[in-house]
């Protein structure tokens, strides 16, 4: 009897709970454009465990015991979230609820099309991070991608290697430089819309991530909406025309689903002169669902593309020409031919296994193989003049910046030759592009008949077109385990293995009318001139490898674990990571400059790293949240920066070590049906980075130390370079009425160098000289507190958007971008810069005041950009037809997006003379942003 009473009292509270009256919220969800019902839409009550998927007919019915006003959220990939305020005091039928397409496939700033301009950058530090922004509907991130991306804005001042790009759980950042290769994704807009995004150090279910965030792209065939679509686009940015066709089958009764897409982009000339584009894209995803627990998915895509680059120009060249001028092209047979073209062909194959262990655990595994080639073309020449139309001796500034020889320890007199300068200007304006015809004639010899030239026949080539080739083979495998431990806790873990074999070589493409080309370096003589001592004095032809030839080998293993805890008022998580990295170089040529250290395998370079991160969410109410995230990790230097001169030898950068990264952020979020606000403050410190560059420097070496020539082509390596990024972000989105919305976004940053890095200079010409030093310690470069270059550090955007119930919309935004700085020359900030290379003494004119003026970092003018876009949709014969059009930089404002100081003037006097002439021969070079551009897209849902 006592047991019965005990059971009764135990069950009494539960009967009271289950006896509470439930309220039903029901409705039907449809596509706003096609008016078709939408299945598998997630319907949930915010900050509760109540959730449901809509049925195939779009219907849902939530049974809840909550009372009062609550927020109902409808979410589906490819659509804008719908947030409604509902009253749960009685049953409510919400009727028909329409979800609007987020237009992500039609906006020119979408994931891939925005980043096509990066194909010209060779993965340089100027590469934008806008590709990591598309899956977020936050007004700030939308402005960052669509409005500020054209000015090379970087979220939090961070390059893309600080974010993790993932495809079906597999990291896609390249081992070589840590950055995604955006060219691999071009034209795949329709099939890359299913995304998940985490900002900064926030938790991700699939990876430890980076301080910029994580973007997960899904290509699972069953995840695409059933149906077809074709779209046609026109633009004047990187391409002129684009066509894409896509079809998804949906999951059939036999457990099969597939999705296919194909596209073509053509650009005879982009916004900048001579920048052609030719690209295709092919995609397939096939899924086989074996049962409710196991499913396999195969993904493959191939996106070959070829893109002509545009040059950075000095103020002098820009003044003589225009902002669209590009020195890389010239006329050949009536067509524009670009000498610097980037070609990308890297197919990818991936197999995923989705294993639902039980209702609380999932194990997802994948294997990937990517192969192919990346080539960057250029002109090589021997024993002849430079083909570059802006070569410094061909410009007027060469004659207006002349100085006499030094007068003892003092500077020589200023001796400009204005007559020659005027003549040079006329010649440049007449021959401002590459002269392909002249190069062909140089490579041929005349044939005579009776003392008269009757034609030309091929001879030794003095000019050739070659490409710097990278043939990568990457194999990767990973597995991710996600477990819901209890009602309030979950566990995530993963392991990824990646192996890279990267063949780097110089490939001869075109003899330009000649017969052969000598495989020597004409700047050297004897054995030093030989690319490969085992095959000296080779005569190479089209398709041959020459110059340099080596493999880069890399293996990485990454593992992470993460615990997440979710409670009524707080959420928190902690994560850990561990990684092992091995690098090695394998030389295939015995270079004449480094005969003992160029051939064969180098020593293995090993790095071991760890990371910790954590976060706390405070739920103030159903509308307000506070987020705090922090991360600390160490990271192996990129393969690119580990070897000091990988084209010539096996040498590892002296003193290289793991990078050390710390980041913290705090966020306040307010979200209601009409108003959405986010305010964020962040701090990031990146320590011990390495950077290698190559250039020709005049007056760099001390003749008093035994140098016959103070000029040299050198390798510059920076080590222990620290960066500090501090700033704040504001995102404001207010629905003024059912048809009118306003947004405001702001970014305020202070991104500086936080150390004085070590500078070492290598002069290859001294490598084989007896008792000669080849590498020199130039000491510290005083870069601390200089601004990091390449992006605006302040950005503001105000926008208005009107959406008419009859399915047309119009939006406009005005943007202000400021505090963008030039990339300074580190060697000009060393103590050695002030020494006269001829006598080792300090230049008498090198006063502190003059140095401060000479070395002041250039700040670019702020810029205001107005953008307008709009769209309309129709139903035609039962099909949805959509039109989207946009105009960026409506006022056609001219502005600089970046630039760099040339390092050729490697001592104080040379730089001072060049600048004080008023027409510097080696002035900074600049990149310019797009002027007025347009994009038009027509799409048809089949």
Largest sheet: 28 strands, antiparallel
Specify the overall morphology. Answer: globular
Radius of gyration: 31 Å
Number of helices: 9
How many distinct beta strands? 48
| Percentage of residues assigned to helices | under 10%
Name the beta content range: over 45%
How far apart are the termini?
70 Å
The overall pLDDT average reads: 88
Brief write-up:
With 942 residues, this protein is mainly beta. Helices cover 8% and strands 47% of the residues.
List keywords for this structure.
single chain, 942 residues, 28-stranded antiparallel sheet, 9 helices, disordered N terminus
Describe the structure.
- The protein is mostly beta strands and 942 residues long.
- It has nine helices and 48 strands.
- The strands form eight sheets. It has a 28-stranded antiparallel sheet that branches. A four-stranded antiparallel sheet has the order 3-2-5-6, with no helix packed on it.
- A hairpin with a 2-residue loop joins strand 19 and strand 20.
- The longest helix is centred in the first third of the chain and has 17 residues, at 2-18.
- It starts with a helix and ends with a strand.
- 45% of the residues are buried.
- The model is unreliable at 1-20, 103-135 and 703-709 (pLDDT under 50).
């Amino acid at each position: 009897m006592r047991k019965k009473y005990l059971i009764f009292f135990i069950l009494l509270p539960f009967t009271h709970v289950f006896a509470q009256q439930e309220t039903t919220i029901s409705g039907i969800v449809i596509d706003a454009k096609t008016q078709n019902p939408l299945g598998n839409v997630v319907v949930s009550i915010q900050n509760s465990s109540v959730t449901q998927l809509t049925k195939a007919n779009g219907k849902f019915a939530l049974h809840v015991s909550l009372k009062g006003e609550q927020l109902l959220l409808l979410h589906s990939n490819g659509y804008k979230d719908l947030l409604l305020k509902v009253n749960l005091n009685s049953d409510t039928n919400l009727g028909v609820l329409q979800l609007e397409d987020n237009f992500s496939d039609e906006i020119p700033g979408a994931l891939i099309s925005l980043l096509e301009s990066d194909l010209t950058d060779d993965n340089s530090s100027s590469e934008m991070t806008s590709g990591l922004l598309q899956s977020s509907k936050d007004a700030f991130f939308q402005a960052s991608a669509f409005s500020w991306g054209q000015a090379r804005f970087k979220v939090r001042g961070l390059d893309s290697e600080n974010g993790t790009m993932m495809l079906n759980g597999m990291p896609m950042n390249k081992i070589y430089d840590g950055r995604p290769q955006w060219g691999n994704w071009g034209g795949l807009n329709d099939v890359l819309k299913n995304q998940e995004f985490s900002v900064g150090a926030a938790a991700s279910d699939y990876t430890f991530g980076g301080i910029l965030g994580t973007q997960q792209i899904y290509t699972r065939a069953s995840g695409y909406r059933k149906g077809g679509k074709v779209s046609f686009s026109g633009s004047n940015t990187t391409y002129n025309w684009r066509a894409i066709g896509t079809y998804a089958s949906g999951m059939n009764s036999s457990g099969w689903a597939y999705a296919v897409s194909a596209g073509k982009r053509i650009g005879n000339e982009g916004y900048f002169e001579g920048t052609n584009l030719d690209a295709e894209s092919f995609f397939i995803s096939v899924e086989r669902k074996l049962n409710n627990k196991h499913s396999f998915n195969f993904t493959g895509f191939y996106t070959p593309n070829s893109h002509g680059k545009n040059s950075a120009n000095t103020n002098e060249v820009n003044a003589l020409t225009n902002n669209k001028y590009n020195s890389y092209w010239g006329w050949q047979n009536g067509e524009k031919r670009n000498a610097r073209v980037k070609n990308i062909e890297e197919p990818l194959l991936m197999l995923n296994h989705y294993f639902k262990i039980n209702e609380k655990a999932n194990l997802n595994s994948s294997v990937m193989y990517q192969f192919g080639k990346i080539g960057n073309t250029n002109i090589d020449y021997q024993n002849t003049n430079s083909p570059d139309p802006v070569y410094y001796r061909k410009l007027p500034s060469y004659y207006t910046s002349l100085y006499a020889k030094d007068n003892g320890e003092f500077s020589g007199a200023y001796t400009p030759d204005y007559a020659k300068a005027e003549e040079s200007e006329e010649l440049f304006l007449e021959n401002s592009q590459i002269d392909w015809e002249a190069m062909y004639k140089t490579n041929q010899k005349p044939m005579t008949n009776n003392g008269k030239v009757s034609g030309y026949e091929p001879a030794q080539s003095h000019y050739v077109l070659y490409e710097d080739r990278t043939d990568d083979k990457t194999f990767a495998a990973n597995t991710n385990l996600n477990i819901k431990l209890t009602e309030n806790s979950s566990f995530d873990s993963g392991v990824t293995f990646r192996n890279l074999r990267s063949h780097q070589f110089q490939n001869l493409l075109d003899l330009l009318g000649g017969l052969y080309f000598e495989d020597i370096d004409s700047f050297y003589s004897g054995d030093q001139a030989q690319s490969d001592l085992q095959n000296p004095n080779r005569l190479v032809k089209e398709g041959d490898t020459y110059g340099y030839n080596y493999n880069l080998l890399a293996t990485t293993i990454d593992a992470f674990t993460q615990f997440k805890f979710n409670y009524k008022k707080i959420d928190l998580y902690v994560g850990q990571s561990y990684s092992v990295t091995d690098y090695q170089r394998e030389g295939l040529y015995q270079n004449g400059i480094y005969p003992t250290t160029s051939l064969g395998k180098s020593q293995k370079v090993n790095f071991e790293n760890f990371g910790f991160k954590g976060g706390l969410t405070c739920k103030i109410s159903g509308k307000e949240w506070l987020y705090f995230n922090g991360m600390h990790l160490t990271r192996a230097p990129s393969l690119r920066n580990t070897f000091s001169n990988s084209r010539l030898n096996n040498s590892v950068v002296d003193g290289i070590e793991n990078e050390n990264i710390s980041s913290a952020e705090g966020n306040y979020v307010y979200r209601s049906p009409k108003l959405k606000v986010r305010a964020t403050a962040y701090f990031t410190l990146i320590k011990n980075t390495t950077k290698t560059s190559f250039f020709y420097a005049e007056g760099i070496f001390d003749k008093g130390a035994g140098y016959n020539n103070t000029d040299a082509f050198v390798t510059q390596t920076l080590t222990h370079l620290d960066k500090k990024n501090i700033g704040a972000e504001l995102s404001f989105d207010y629905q003024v009425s059912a048809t009118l919305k306003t947004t405001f976004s702001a970014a305020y940053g202070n991104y500086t160098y936080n150390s004085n890095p070590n500078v070492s200079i290598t002069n290859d010409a001294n490598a084989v000289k007896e008792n000669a030093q080849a590498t020199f310690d130039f000491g510290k470069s005083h870069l601390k507190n200089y601004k990091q270059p390449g992006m605006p550090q302040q950005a503001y955007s105000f926008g208005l958007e009107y959406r008419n119930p009859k399915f047309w919309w119009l939006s406009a935004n005005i943007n202000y971008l400021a505090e963008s700085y030039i990339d300074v020359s580190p060697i000009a900030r060393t103590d050695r810069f002030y020494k006269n290379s001829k006598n080792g003494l300090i230049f008498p004119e090198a006063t502190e005041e003059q140095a401060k003026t000479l070395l002041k970092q250039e700040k670019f003018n702020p810029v205001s950009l107005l953008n307008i876009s709009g769209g309309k949709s129709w139903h035609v014969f039962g099909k949805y037809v959509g039109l989207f059009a946009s105009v960026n930089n409506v006022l056609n404002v001219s502005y600089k997006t970046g630039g760099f100081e040339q390092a050729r003037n490697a001592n104080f006097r040379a730089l001072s003379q060049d600048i004080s002439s008023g027409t510097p021969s080696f002035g900074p070079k600049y990149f310019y942003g797009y002027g007025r551009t347009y994009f038009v897209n027509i799409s048809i849902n089949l």
